[in-house]
């Protein structure tokens, strides 16, 4: 049996283009992740993929001193970055399939178990669902 290499290459090229189109369409649905401390003093925005794009502070954020402020910013940014990675995973995993899902995980884009995520002092707005309210 002879293989028509041109036909096979065209078929692979079509599948790659279709996958790319589906992935781009799903990525268009992923917006920035915003996190805000429950007291509203500190807020962050992270782009899909995890790049910190904005930090917002109120005068009240400065009351606890530089170390506390830095720790709050870092904690918010870390949580928002995890959520941004989860949004990427959620958007791309259905398109890329099981092997693609492994690659997403290796890049740090992992799903979040919302039941165990520590958001005690945080409210998030993201494409992963409705804003979370802090636990009391």
Automatic annotation (TrEMBL):
Pfam families: YbaB_DNA_bd (PF02575). It comes from the Bacteria. Keywords: DNA-binding. One of its GO terms (molecular function) is DNA binding. InterPro entries: YbaB-like_sf, YbaB/EbfC. SUPFAM superfamilies: YbaB-like (SSF82607). This is YbaB/EbfC DNA-binding family protein. It comes from Actinokineospora diospyrosa.
